[in-house]
TrEMBL record, chain A:
GO biological process, any: acetyl-CoA catabolic process
UniProt protein name: Acetyl-CoA decarbonylase/synthase complex subunit gamma
A matching Pfam family: CdhD
InterPro entries: 4Fe-4S_dom, Ac-CoA_synth_d_su_TIM-brl, ACDS_complex_subunit, AcylCoA_decarb/synth_gsu, Dihydropteroate_synth-like_sf
């Protein structure tokens, strides 16, 4: 898809005017091809050439920005079907659905839940990013509800297929870069006009991929390219098929008509069963749901879904790391043992899980060890005697202890001698090689 | 893979080009996941058989729908949350009664009997005792049995060997043979007593492939092997599991790699019920709500993600997880 230097060269004026800072147009073109600079650095480039280049280098899927200020998020922009091929770039966003037929009590409760489920997990803030407000027939209540939900500061997704109602609803939130999931084959022209006029992202509803494809073509022809696709809300199998087909057509087929993000209403597909909803939401985290709509949010649901999402959207080329600090398990006291391991997230998870399971009080020190596994960090010189000593001296753990016992990972038993010299007053204990043996080890130690 | 795309017409009738209908990007694979049958009689189940990506029924032969089993233990489990004691009560005291109860009440596709009591660091039940339990369980149910060990490689080899012999003809699945003990488990399980064996590797396509090859070199037929390619709970490095399974699936189907075409079984519950989200008490985490619901969500989320990545069978602990995953599977692939 990318153009070669020669192809770009043909688009330049070929005058070697040097105004771009390069000696020749050819040199400039090679830099553009390598992605080092952009074509607009050439003051004489024609609009036509710029556009040609933009089209040739555009990713197969559009990135759509939704929400304003703190709520602003990007969706779409994916270039692969599987994360190991490169990485998935825009994490799945979650939404909770409201409607004008809900009682005040239900509305209040959902609002409270959205505020309550907001926590930090490995340096990522976990909360629901958006809210769906569905129009179910009571216009006055619908508009009041939208006003009321503004206080949450989330991305608005208005689900409304009635153009007149949608017009009034959009007027309330148009400055927040909302989504209007409202177009279908009966109202498409009016909806496009409304979306264009208010500069909002338009959601297209269709039961078949052919229908959705036709709607995208209509919208693009009318000049509106801020779109999100709803692959269906009634049948689980058909919706899954449509979601896969759409993404595959864009990424593998290179057909940009389907190069838009998706919104999946897991709540409506799951027949009122919250566990089925979780199964579906998990599937769409992996398989191409840009926004997944839930009935409600609570910790039991969030802990699983946000954890899964955090995993899937890590870059396979960069290992996930945990913050270097002192972690506490099972209410450690001044005589509890101090364990130490590396900051590679997978190591941390396994070790912390086993300490939890042991129910033994313990401290766990995580130094900055480069985000690598124990042996790799040690071999790279990032998890040696000095690093460990500095961590212990700087984190202030010594002041909390009356009994100083340091448990080393069994794989770096070789550090024992060094540390005994570096850390006078500490008993250096070699722990097990595998985290699995920690519960037994800790319970015998205590 | 073949991409069917329309060729753009050279006609000047732009309108015709623009309204050309959507063309499907069909994906056809040359490889196919092998079928492996566990159990006997009416209740026997078959895993695998698909030549499409997981759940992609619309692409070709989706094969057998993924199977869901419930986990039980050979002794009253010491580290399960109280909800299970409330659910099962005294039934848990005898594995055979427990198995029968599970079969009659929840009707899973199979039962996973886990010999936690065999652990030398735990109850250290003898091989004879374990065999006795396995026999009783097998007599009390007609569902296929998956036998899991205590995570002690040496002891597991012994009990697998003895149980394979005692249950000859029952076509059970031994979960699992690892690099350290595949010779014992493979030879006794598959070669001598014609049982099925799960080859366990830890979240790495090359390790999975290597163990499959070693098993084949031992003389074990590919049709007698399923893979356990590793598991992690959602949020706990699950991306490695998902990507390993994606790569295995693509190699098995796309490159027709016969050494990776065994179906995959994933014991979800072994991982998800020991993470903080599933075991922290409601006193310790007052914001987090019901401990039981937390555990089910963790298990269902991980199970669905695994099925979407390529598991042909999953093992869960809570009957509600079983129910939700069965409903999900029936709705999404029928």
């Amino acid at each position: 898809m990318a153009l070669s230097g020669i192809q770009i060269f043909k688009l330049t004026p070929r005058t070697n005017c040097k105004e771009c800072g390069f000696p020749t147009c050819m040199a400039f073109s090679m830099k553009v091809a390598a992605g080092a600079i952009t074509i607009d650095k050439c003051p004489h480039i024609s609009d036509e050439a710029t556009q040609q280049l933009a089209e040739a280098t555009a990713p197969p899927m559009k990135t759509i920005v939704i929400g304003k200020d703190a709520a602003e998020r990007k969706i779409g922009g994916e270039t692969v079907l599987f994360r190991h091929e490169k990485t998935l770039v825009s994490k799945t966003l979650f939404a909770v659905q409201f409607s004008d037929t809900m009682t005040d009590e239900v509305i209040e409760s959902k609002m409270a839940n959205i505020i309550k489920v907001d926590y930090d997990r490995i340096q990522e803030q976990m909360s629901v990013e958006s809210i769906v407000v569905k129009y179910d027939g009571n216009k006055d209540k619908y508009l009041v509800l939208i006003e009321k939900l503004k206080s949450l500061g989330k991305i608005f997704i208005l689900a409304c297929t009635d153009v007149n109602i949608a017009k009034e609803a959009i007027a309330l939130v148009k400055d927040t870069k909302p989504i209007l999931v409202g177009a279908n084959k009966d109202n498409i022209d009016d909806m496009i006009a409304l979306a264009k006029e208010n500069n909002v992202v338009l959601g297209l509803n269709g039961d078949t991929v052919e229908d959705i494809y036709a709607l995208v073509e209509t919208a693009e022809k009318a000049g509106h390219k801020e779109l999100i696709l709803n692959p269906g809300t009634t049948e689980m199998a058909k919706t899954f098929e449509n979601t896969i087909e759409i993404r595959r057509t864009a990424i593998v087929g290179g057909d940009r008509t389907f190069g838009y993000p998706s919104i999946v209403f897991a709540n409506e597909l799951s027949n009122g069963n919250q566990f089925v909803e979780t199964a579906l939401a998990s599937t769409y985290i992996l398989k191409y749901g840009s926004i997944v709509v839930l009935d409600d949010i609570n910790y039991p649901k969030a802990l699983a879904l946000f954890g899964l999402r955090q995993n899937i959207f890590t870059d396979p080329q960069k290992p996930m790391r945990v913050e270097p600090k002192v972690y506490e398990f099972n209410k450690p006291k001044e005589d509890s043992p101090v364990l130490i391991t590396v900051d590679f997230a997978l190591t941390y998870f396994v070790v912390s899980g086993e300490i939890e399971r042991s129910k033994a009080p313990a401290w766990l020190l995580i130094p900055d060890a480069g985000g690598l596994s124990v042996l790799t960090s040690w071999a790279a010189g990032k998890f040696g005697g000095t690093v460990i000593k500095n961590m212990i001296k700087e984190c202030g753990i010594e002041e909390k202890l009356t009994k100083k016992r340091l448990v080393l990972p069994g794989k770096v038993a070789v550090l024992k001698g060094d540390l005994e010299e570096e850390l006078p007053g500490w008993e250096i204990i070699v722990g097990p090689e595998e985290a699995m043996q920690l519960p037994k080890f800790l319970n015998e130690l205590v | 893979m073949c991409i069917e795309r329309y060729t753009k017409k050279t006609t000047t009738d732009l309108k015709e080009v623009q309204t050309l209908a959507y063309k499907k990007v069909a994906k056809k694979y040359s490889g196919k996941i092998k079928e492996v049958t566990i159990g006997t009689g009416d209740k026997a189940i078959t895993l695998g058989g698909r030549n499409v990506l997981p759940l992609h029924a619309f692409d070709g032969e989706v094969g057998q729908s993924p199977k869901v089993g419930l986990e039980i233990v050979d002794e009253v489990p010491s580290d399960w949350i109280d909800a299970f004691a409330n659910l099962y009560g005294d039934v848990q005291k005898d594995a055979a009664t427990w198995a029968k109860y599970v079969e009659e009440t929840y009707a899973p596709d199979f039962i996973c009997l886990r010999f936690e009591g065999a652990d030398p660091n735990g109850s250290n039940r003898s091989v004879e005792e374990c065999v006795e339990t396995a026999k009783k369980v097998s007599e009390s149910v007609s569902l296929p049995l998956v036998i899991a060990g205590s995570k002690n490689v040496e002891k597991d080899s012994e009990i697998f060997k003895a149980i394979a012999e005692a249950l000859e003809g029952k076509n059970i699945l031994l979960l699992s043979a690892q690099e350290e003990n595949y010779k014992t488990v493979g030879a006794a399980g598959a070669l001598a007593y014609k049982q099925k064996v799960a080859a366990e590797s830890s979240v790495d396509i090359n390790l999975a492939k290597q163990l499959n090859i070693l098993m084949t070199q031992l003389g074990v037929q590919k049709e007698d092997v399923v893979m356990h390619v590793g598991c992690a709970a959602a949020g706990y490095g699950y991306e490695y599991v998902s990507s390993t399974m994606d790569r295995i699936t693509l190699a098995a189907l796309g490159q027709n790699d016969e050494t990776l075409q065994m179906p995959i079984i994933t014991p979800i519950s072994f991982e998800t019920w020991s993470v903080k989200e599933s075991i922290a008490t409601e006193e310790d985490e007052p914001n987090w709500g019901s401990i039981e619901e937390r555990g089910i969500h963790m298990e269902v989320s991980t199970a669905a993600a695994s099925i979407a990545s390529g598991s042909d069978a999953v093992i869960v602990r809570h009957p509600k997880s079983l129910e939700a995953i069965k409903y999900y599977l029936n709705s999404i692939i029928g």
